[in-house]
Records
---
Amino acid sequence: MAETLIALDRISKHYVRGKEKIEVLHELSLGIEQGDFLALMGPSGSGKTTLLNLIGGLDQPSAGTITVSGQRIDTLSGGRLAQWRARNVGFVFQFYNLLPVLTAAQNVELPLLLTNLSKSERARRVQIALTVVGLEDRAKHKPSELSGGQAQRVAIARALVADPTLLVCDEPTGDLDRKTADEVLGLLQTLNREHGKTLIMVTHDPRAAEYARHQLHMDKGRLIEAGAQA
Amino acid sequence: MASAVAQVTAVTALNLRTVPSRLGPSMVIVIGIAGVVGVLVALLAMAEGFRATLSSTGRADRVLVLRGGANDELSSVIYRSQVPTIEQAPGIRKDAAGKPIAAAEVFMLTSLPRRGATDPTNVVVRGTQPNVLTVRPEVHIVEGRMFNSGMREIMVGRGAAAEFEGLTVGNSVAVRGDGWKVVGIFESGGNVHESEIWTDTEAIMSAANRGAPTSVIAQLESESQLQPFKDFLTKDPSMTVDVLSEPKYYASRSKMLSNLINGLGYFVAVVMAIGALFGALNTMYAAVSTRSVEIATLRALGFGAAPVVVSIMIEAIVLALIGGVLGALISYVLFNGYTISTLNGQTFSQVAFDFRVTPSLLIQGVVWAAVIGLFGGLFPALRAARMPVAEALRAG
Amino acid sequence: MKFFPLLWATLWRRKPRTIFTMLSIVVAFLLFGLLQAVNVAFSQGVEMSGADRLITHGKYSFTEILPYGHYQQIRSVPGVDKVSHATWFGGRYQSEANFFPIMPIDQDTYYDVYPEFVVADDQVAAFKRERTSCIVGRGLMEKFGWKIGDTIPIQATIWPKKGGSNAWEFQLVGVMDARDETMKGQENFMVFRWDYFDEARAFGQGTVGWYNVKVANPADAETVGRSIDKLFANSPKETLTETDKAFNAAFLKQFGDIQFLIASIIGASFFSLIIITGNTMMQSVRERVPELAVLKTIGFRDGGVLALVLAESALLCLIAAVIGVLLSTFASGFLKPFLPGLEVNANVWMLALGAALGLALLVGAIPSLRAMRLNIVNALSGH
């Protein structure tokens, strides 16, 4: 029986725009198990990205609690939250993942700069991460010299390199063509099935969602149904 | 396709419309060049003020007689016995009573603190004759009176009164020994004498234990009398004298400091201009690259390369000119008429002068601005024109 | 440090922009270095003045002449160790443009009072032996191509010879060097013998320009000075005695506020520079907002991102400033003959580095605060 890695209890999030209070998430409760690959889906404005940001520690809820590996993260702030992110979360975004001025290897190395690892140790882990995503021969290339798919794979390598507790992906294949998207999604699936990584992925693409173990649908800030897939 | 002028106008209008959105980079050009022009105009105004003060000293029909070989009044000695010979020389104008309009003078230095300071500063003390106001008719007493002969009385120039401590009518200062009473203040049209203290030749020579004057100043009947007067004296074997027309003398005494300040001004301005140029190039290259799509589109539509180049240069020059005018105005407002004084190494004494921001300097500043703007826009403009259209369109 | 590759790569994000900005900074610091070197030149003379040396000159002006009779009286003042004298000859060698100071001095005591100038023993002996001899500074000897044994003709401007001629001649018997490397250039003047001067000149016999007094104990300098002036207080030639340092400082002050002028020029130049560099830093951060957000998602703290931007600013300014000051060092080497003492010394370097850091902080402040405060969610959704 897999344990609950992430527990969200009655999470609400609202923004204030001028005089209006806009509720994005309504008293949402959710448990994510260790080793799960979860796809969060829903129309635009449904709050899925907001939920992802909360789970990843990029934002704080207006109400409710979030517990990851037994640690409350809704009470962390500022530097502590950044520290928590560094140790526990790897991110893959739709755009802007890589710094264009750095090589692939240097991009992958970025999270390790926040640790106390030696230079050689950092280089070793970068090498491993790039090998896992199959791009060890592209280590010295700049993002402008990589294809869209390769760039996303480098982003995945970076997300992995510090061995985080969970991987958070926001529309990782949204900017890629079908074939490349499938490659990237296959990689994510492998990471989950063979390496046991816990992944939470926001997507609007049903075909991308099929790569996941579970799907969650959201609308207007609430979960609608839970669908299970083998 | 529309005429060249219409094309240039259209493209320039497009460029200028986008300037507000690129205010930061545009400010780089304006302020960078304002700095260059401001400093240039200020320093040149200083040199010009100094030059004007010294060159406005003297009349073409007045001469200075110094000892042969002496560069300046401070180094010179004229024996008492030589004075009558000089004053009787042909060519000197006579007054109504038939007396030569000439005066034997003593040029000395004394030390007085500047207003608000304690350190002593060199001040010129000129011992002169009772007829000095005839010899130097440009001098007018503005307060008090002329000094009396043989007395420890002094008359001070307007500039000296403003610059130094204690030079007010009724006060006493120590010139050579104590007790020299200020009895009057004079002006002389803003020339170098306004920085001087005047007194009676005999009084100062006796107080300083000095037996001979330093020079003789004389008015000639006309400028044309200079050569005959000079020949008469220099051919006399009993005298070793130099005869100099007054304007020439003062011009030579200002050359070094004037050149120094001018040199400093141009040097600093050139260096700052180079810095401003790099700033301008930075801005214009960035401007061109952010608008490469628009430029390429225009060219794809048929606009020639030349209007594009010209419009970019116009933009750079316009910004530069704004900066230039701004810098020139700031210098004018801050400095024009501002009085400064410094040590003239060639006469070893303080000279007070005003910054003079002349129209010609302002124009020079604006021209510098235009030139910097020209170069700042030229290379980016050429680059814009040479960029292959298809490539630029694809980049967008 | 490990963040250097990131900083370096970020600095060259847009090569032309970085190069142009750096060039602007280089130019500004070239100017800074040179102008500060001028400050050094002006203050050099003050620095080299011995604390144990006084100068006794006419009360009302340094240009007054004093009786030779004062000499014995000054020597007898308690606290006085050595006394020498010198006079301003004026004069010129060939043309006014070749100006250097020329002074008749007391050959027996001058170098005792001025130990900072070094002359070979045999040359000093020759100077004491030959009445019409002279010694010049090494820089002058090199500039005019003189050799020991040459006759140097000097045209008098103030002091003609008996008979009225201005033509003086001296035999070059020795060369002076500055003992201390930092004072190189100060020794470029000419000295000849006062006894010959006094005997050969047309007027002014028995007078000197000023007295140089060495006191036994520097702490007594002021009191000894006052005692000397008291000696001559009611005589026909009153004196004013002050320390060398005070005299030099007062002389320099007469040029007006050079320091203020230089500071103003530097200020104007730096103001423009702040605008140029500030604009570059703002643009650099503006373009990188999403990337900075990504760094934050990775775990870089707000303070860390602030530090990165400030470090980038510092790198930009420091590298360019160092290049600029190096260039000013070369330039001041060329200009040194025109203004002795012109030097980009350690002080100037410290000032420059301080200015560079100040500049970096000033232009980096707003962009780095912006980077620090950017909200991850907003920044990433803003594509």
---
Amino acid sequence: MSEPGVIHRARRVVTLDHAVPMAEAVAVRDGLILGVGSVEEMRAAWGPLRVDDTLADSVLLPGFVEAHSHSLEGAIWAWEYAGFFPRLGPDGVRRQGCQSFEDLIALLRRLDAELDDPSESLIVWGFDPIYFGSERLAARHLDVVSSTRPICVVHASLHLFTVNTALMEREGFADGCEVEGVPVGGDGRAIGELQEPPAMSLARREMLMLWGALADPASLRRFADMARVVGCTTVTELGASRLAGDDDLALWTGAAADDSFAARLVPLLNPALGQQGTPDEIAGYAVAIRDRSTSKVRFGLVKMVLDGSIQGFTARLNPPGYLPHPDGTERPNGIWLIEPEQFSAWFEAFHRAHVTVHTHVNGDQAVDLLLDTVDTALAKHSWFDHRHTAQHTQLTTAAQYRRMARLGMNANIFSNHIFYWGDQHRTITVGPDRAARMDACATADREGVRYSVHSDASVTPLGSLHTMWCAVNRVTASGDVLGPDERISVDRALRAVTIDAAHQLRMDHEIGTIQAGKLADFVALADDPYDVDPMVLKDIDVITTVVGGEITAS
Amino acid sequence: MLWNGHRVPFTLLGGYLGAGKTTIVNHVVRNAGGRRIVVLVNDVAAVNIDAALIADHDGTTLSLSNGCVCCSIADDFAQTLEQIRAMSEAPDHVLMELSGVGEPERVVPWANTTGFRLDGIVVAADADQIDELADRPFVGDTIGAQLRAADLVVLTKSDLAADGGSVARRRIQTFSSAPIVDVVNGAIDVDVLIGLGSPTGVSGETGRMRALPVEHGEYPDHHATRLIELGSVTHEELSSIVDSLPVDVIRAKALVRCSDVAPPVEVHVVGKRRTIRPRPDLDQAVAAQAMVVITVVA
């Protein structure tokens, strides 16, 4: 027998449904939306339902959909945050961050005192000293906290650790070693920096702890809690986590089995992560695991990675390529992660099996390879509603967006880059002209490509309001506007993080707007994004979310 | 401390799809000659081993009855290398097959992390394909980067090339001065790829010594193994001997007492990579005043 249902009265319901764009209330039953309208209309249509005024002061919108994130965003919160900017935790508490070495040391002292086992490693993450002046964090700073407990400070880039002497002595490299990326001081001793993953792997026990967290169901719960505090009701894992067998699938469905789990999860299968078999066998598996989906976990999409990152100089660029080094020497092009032949073999098998493929393409040359591959796949096998999606698609040109439109593709644009790395792109990676057309939402609109915008959490923090703010304002960390003609409206940005994100996840019939028959997934905000100054979009308070009709709680 | 501080030699095997890397790996594990070799491959299923030789198979790891182990590198390098470090006894050698677009220079730092030391970079090139590949859209520059990084180039399938591989050799030489070894059906001389024991009989690293001179099998190139007597040398004299080894030396190894340095000094040559380093962890008594070299005679 079904529940009688409830009417949520709000300050305003913004539906993004053109039939009823705005309303007073939304009626919900059994996790689905019964209708949208005034309380009176709902009661006239559906009987004397109870009115819930819990959200009466909030503006209700379709729950935000983050179409490119990683569960590392939840795993990393197994440890404390030590970054420069204040940051919300999955518990809803805002950390003030570390704006000086003194702040970091004070944080470490507090955490050190909280740990009972004297040999347990102390890990903090997100450290970002670029605003601290020229002094570099070193082991000697951390040694004042403890000369016995191993300490590992994970930097914001995730490409650098600073560790203390106790950790280096445990691993036997305090006196230096041959591994590239372990600088030594004037005394020949390692200073405590571990640069890039090979050197970082010297902190063996801490690396094992970080991987262990990825496979911990508690990390997925924190991921969902993090989604809740920033207003996302559906979040994705874009292929950084193996889905190669029953244990891998059960990690997701098991963690999200609880009714109180605060978000829907969409983990994508990456054929390069432990999948055995021919391309057709893997495609068959991608189809078969759709049946393992639950109301909170959806399997069936695929992710592949073609190139690296622009700020890491590993994205594949068309001429003229990267700006030269400061000393004038040429920078080589970036790297491929899959051979074009292997990519097309996998891609065509998924396409034939009607599996939507999301492909990481940061550089414009990688976009060309993707477009050629989609073109060939479509010529061999007709499938109009494929929704194949270019992910990040940061340097995509107007000509490439025109091809993307003709091929029926979607884009998911990495708008957060403009704030976090826009200044560096202008001066160091590609120069002012190409930086001005990076993450070109307005061009995608002009050329007719449907798109979402994303955070790539935890590469940048999860938060659709912040991502919208980036796409709408295109303000860099230094406060400049990068490529003002690529700015988009609040309405366009809001659709990008709701219905258009849902579309590329093949869930637009279920989520992304507030209309009868869809899942009752909402975000409750303190202000209406349409009413505020676009420059304060990111500062709107998230009151709570509603997932499947249930108000989520921390 | 891991393996009492011993560092296992680590070889990177690069080259594009179709260059014959997997065929080479198959040959090496079947002809390991008692060495316990860990091979890291992209797809364990592609390693073609007689069922009789398989001791254990768990999907991503294949343990062979001859002591070799094949592991898949599906996840990241750090995790894969931790799997090896978890072995109670150090293997004799690690051979890592890179992906077809893997750039060896970018992987080199991993080969020097805890428990390992880079032995050399070997790049396979298909005699019939490499000239076209080096110009191919999207991947041409990657092919160039692979060849430039090579210490030793393995030319494969020259028996199938109409010109016997002469165009391929010329093209490879525009990128690299590394010696080129001609290999058919993956049948590489394992001593060349993996290395030799030290010429002492009580080798510091593999504990294995082969009688000299060694008769190598049927290879398209004629390989000759020779012993070079060193006599009494200083560190500087040893360096200059190693530097002046002719280009046809594709492998050399020695553990030498230098008259002016306390610890024994180890010499490793893999193609054009020539490494000399002190081994304070080894006793002078295991050193010998001789170097084994393998030369390729075209």
